[in-house]
Amino acid sequence: MEKVGINLLWLVPGVVGGSETYTTRLLHGLVERSSELDYTLFALPEFADAHPELAKSFKITFAPVSGHWKSFRVAGENSWLAAQCRRRHIDLIHHAGGTVPVVRVARSVLTVHDLQYLYYPEYFTKAKLGYLKTMVPRSAEAARLVLTPSEYTRRTVIERLNIDPSIVVVVPHGISPRPPQAASDVRARYGIKGRFFLYPAITYPHKNHLVLIEAFARVLEHYPDTMLVLTGAKGSMEVRIAKEVTKLKIRDKVLRLGYIPSADLDALYTEAVAMTFPSRFEGFGAPVLEAMARRCPVIASDASALPEVVQDAGYLVSPDNSDQWAQAMTYLLTEDVSRKELAESGLKRATEFTWGRAADVLEDSYRHALGTTL
Distance between CA 83 and CA 147 in Å, rounded? Predict the structure, then answer.
């Protein structure tokens, strides 16, 4: 039985964003299928508390490093992880966090979630930008296969990193079934009244909250009983967003909830007029898929991977045109029949994505990298 290691030392629970959901759901998909491959996870100690089911389902070895110090994690990949792979005779190691360590002791598969640093370098610190510019191309060249979450990211890897197209494989996102929450209870708990738009995103610059807020202020001029609900953890734009809301005098209409449980977010999807997603850059755009799976109409940017995910099942709008955003939001407020049709189209589109199917592609990729299939 061939041994596959999965490097999760980069996965700091609650910090790395959508890549955590993507990776852990793929792991659940691997658990649910029978396999002749022998898997071992290499993870930070806090992984077990954040994902107890996975910690029970896989053989797992915890690194003696803290998740809060990136330099220690990188050093751990080049020393502790290398030693563990040798000791356990790992045949293939999947580096799921975007880089391959300098010290390599087994054949490798690499996941590149996106190449945002090449398109929006201003969103990165000088140190991180330098690290990514050096390590990502080197990692892609070293890997036997490169996995991406979307065809858009696959194309950018091929074109921008000059990688052979035959070794770049799309392993898409899926949708996880979850029991529904009573929407009225969730509304009451968070103080949401009347009709509302929803945007679930960390307040990073590329998430483009300011354009959405400007558009929403225009919607309020004609529909003053509407709310904008913002969920997601705090990012570097948090203070600036709050100042913009105050400047536009719409503080009582913008509800900033921060992080909320997935079940609560699902309930809000079912109640929202639409999920708005003005992000300038996404390697996939999982919240769009989640919204469509809950029959929530979607207005998304016509940028990066989002048109690929949405296709004709939602409205696609320029990320920098607040007038277009205001028009699209107003249309869904006033055209109930169109809103319901869009909700059904989104649901149909979402059914094309399953974690089981994605896990099949992932394991097939492992076999290919091991040389067991052509």
Answer: 25
Total Cβ atoms within 10 A of residue 23:
21
Assess whether pLDDT exceeds 60 at residue 146.
yes
Superfamily in which the 3-174+354-370 domain is placed by CATH = Glycogen Phosphorylase B; (3.40.50.2000)
Task: Calculate the average pLDDT of the chain.
Answer: 93
Is there a contact between 6 and 42 (Cβ–Cβ < 8 Å)?
yes
- The DSSP letter of residue 209 is H
What is the arrangement of strands in the sheet containing 315-317, beginning at the earlier edge strand? 254-258, 227-231, 196-200, 274-277, 298-301, 315-317
Question: Quick one: tokens of 30?
Answer: 């691997």
Query: Which of 38, 37, 51 lies closest to 8, judged by CA?
Result: 51
- pTM value is 0.91
Residues 306/319, Cβ–Cβ less than 8 Å: no
DSSP three-state, residue 309: helix
What count of other Cβ atoms lies within 10 Å of the Cβ of residue 94?
26
* pLDDT interval class at 136 (50, 70, 90): very high
H or E element at residue 164? none
CA distance 199 to 273: 11
Residue 253 and residue 225 in contact, taking contact as beta carbons nearer than 8 Å: no
CA 373 to the chain's CA centroid: 30
CATH class for the domain made up of 183-350: alpha beta
SS3 assignment, position 225: coil
pLDDT in tens, 236-266: 999 999 999 999 999 999 999 998 988 899 9
Task: For residue 32, count other CB atoms closer than 10 A to its CB.
Answer: 11
- As a whole number of angstroms, the distance between CA 268 and CA 245 comes to 22
In the three-class reduction of DSSP (H, G, I as helix; E, B as strand; rest coil), residue 262 is classed as helix
Number of H helices, E strands in the chain: 17, 13
Domain ranges for the chain, please list them: 3-174+354-370, 183-350
| Alpha helix segments (H runs only) across the chain | 18-31, 47-50, 52-57, 70-78, 80-87, 116-119, 126-142, 151-161, 183-190, 209-222, 238-247, 262-271, 286-293, 306-310, 322-334, 336-350, 355-370
